[in-house]
Design a protein that fits this description.
Layout: H1 2-37, H2 46-55, H3 69-84, H4 91-102, H5 107-112, H6 115-131, E1 135-136, E2 140-148, E3 151-158, E4 160-161, E5 166-174, E6 180-188, H7 190-194
Antiparallel strand pairs: 1-4, 2-3, 3-5, 5-6
Length: 197
Amino acid sequence: MYAKKRKNILPAVIIILIGLIVVLGVLAYSHYITAADTVPFVRERRRQGERLYQETLARDLAASYPQTPQELMTLFNATTHFLYGSIIDDDVLFERVVLFQREMFSTELLEGNPFQEQLANLLEAIYLLNEYGITPRRPDVVSARYTDLRSAIVNVRQVMVHYDNLYWAYFLERDDDDFWRITGWVRTDSSFMHDFE
């Protein structure tokens, strides 16, 4: 009699185990899909976003602030690409990148460029780029020249898809703590780049 009850229970136990495995599989798949949708990067550019995050926001500027104008501009260029490269799909992360970028600005530039105003200008520029189908690539440092021991000019080229390349001259100075800070920039042309090479 005991063997007969055991035979009746075995199929029920197997069905319950199979049901549990199916439920766990559905839950795991659902979690995977949900997690993928909450990533703060545009799905097609997730790897690029994760790499840029490691280069920028994951960096502790207090412990490893860039030592040269070229290093500072390379980091700044990474944040610029992060912002303009249609990579971020999250308002909070976007604002964090802008705040991180502002840590490289001089006090005077910060005072003359309030956060909300900078954010609004960035969003407007990105909207216009998208509207006209212009895609900026990652900016690169072309040359740097020290004008004296405490100031430098760094030339940057911004390659654009469906538009002419842009050229910028960034002005940097050392602050009272001896850190390089961006004091301003102007748009130039390619001939200006060669003046400093």
